[in-house]
Amino acid sequence: MNNINWDDLKYFLALYEAGKVNTAAHQLNVNYATVSRRIDRLEDALKLKLFNRTGDGFLPTIEGKLLYERTISLRDNINNLSESLSPDTLFNQNIKISMVPFLAEQLVIEKLQHLHTRFPELRFEMDTSSRNVNIAKQEADIALRMELPETGESICKKLGEVEFVLSGTDDWIERLRNHEPVNIITYTAELGHLPECQYLIDRFGTKSIKIQTDTVAAQRKAAEHGYGIALLPKIALRSSPLSTVKPEIAITREVWLLTTKKTMSSTAKKLVMEELVKIFHTELQGES
């Protein structure tokens, strides 16, 4: 153990949690070769094989899992010590938040500005990709999800419910009210399982679909240009000229905040979470 370069453990943790060298290298802002070289050096120092190299990535061995369990607490203790001893680093942190695009565009970016004004050292990284990041592997500090995960070790808190309304130009809304045939705008097939997509297909049929996109912003734009009727989150329509009608049955989706105990131990990240809770409570309450 005396031969270990303790900085190599940072690379080990990143690779263990990412599973792929490219992902770990991106997180550490280094190249592929650096991560691979650091892992080789750590394995040589410990005289242990920590990962099995496979076509799907780096899979930890039993020894790798044991080292991770012992090292993760060390990293947390060092981070907490640094935060407690150095006031300058208390808020000088990067907070990664994962969410669907419309939550970032319509709420989070705008409403977090107040907190950022108070604590300008904070840095936000907002992941709006379609995949669900793994909170337990620290792919994000905070995740805002439109459904509650069935399993996992995350800490979960319900933030509220998003209401969906049928949206379109005046002409399309009038046709809808008169029970005339309408065109619909909805998600692509990959997102066809979403309840808002299912509602439109069940009510109007697949032959009514005229545009399919994978974002709320694109659906709203298509509706504004007269392509047909979209079922959109009410919070995404605040500055839109679209007319709206509530569905005959309420269509809502829950918003959940997910995080970990480790993230909760960070003063800065806990502050951001508390601010997000306030934002969603205020904004979603105002929609009801």
TrEMBL record:
<comment type="similarity">
    <text>Belongs to the LysR transcriptional regulatory family.</text>
</comment>
<dbReference type="GO" id="GO:0006351">
    <property type="term" value="P:DNA-templated transcription"/>
</dbReference>
<dbReference type="Pfam" id="PF03466">
    <property type="entry name" value="LysR_substrate"/>
</dbReference>
<dbReference type="GO" id="GO:0003700">
    <property type="term" value="F:DNA-binding transcription factor activity"/>
</dbReference>
<feature type="domain" description="HTH lysR-type">
    <location>
        <begin position="4"/>
        <end position="61"/>
    </location>
</feature>
<dbReference type="InterPro" id="IPR058163">
    <property type="entry name" value="LysR-type_TF_proteobact-type"/>
</dbReference>
<dbReference type="InterPro" id="IPR005119">
    <property type="entry name" value="LysR_subst-bd"/>
</dbReference>
<dbReference type="InterPro" id="IPR036388">
    <property type="entry name" value="WH-like_DNA-bd_sf"/>
</dbReference>
<keyword id="KW-0238">DNA-binding</keyword>
<dbReference type="GO" id="GO:0043565">
    <property type="term" value="F:sequence-specific DNA binding"/>
</dbReference>
<dbReference type="Pfam" id="PF00126">
    <property type="entry name" value="HTH_1"/>
</dbReference>
<protein>
    <submittedName>
        <fullName>HTH-type transcriptional regulator DmlR</fullName>
    </submittedName>
</protein>
<keyword id="KW-0805">Transcription regulation</keyword>
<dbReference type="InterPro" id="IPR036390">
    <property type="entry name" value="WH_DNA-bd_sf"/>
</dbReference>
<keyword id="KW-0804">Transcription</keyword>
<dbReference type="InterPro" id="IPR000847">
    <property type="entry name" value="LysR_HTH_N"/>
</dbReference>
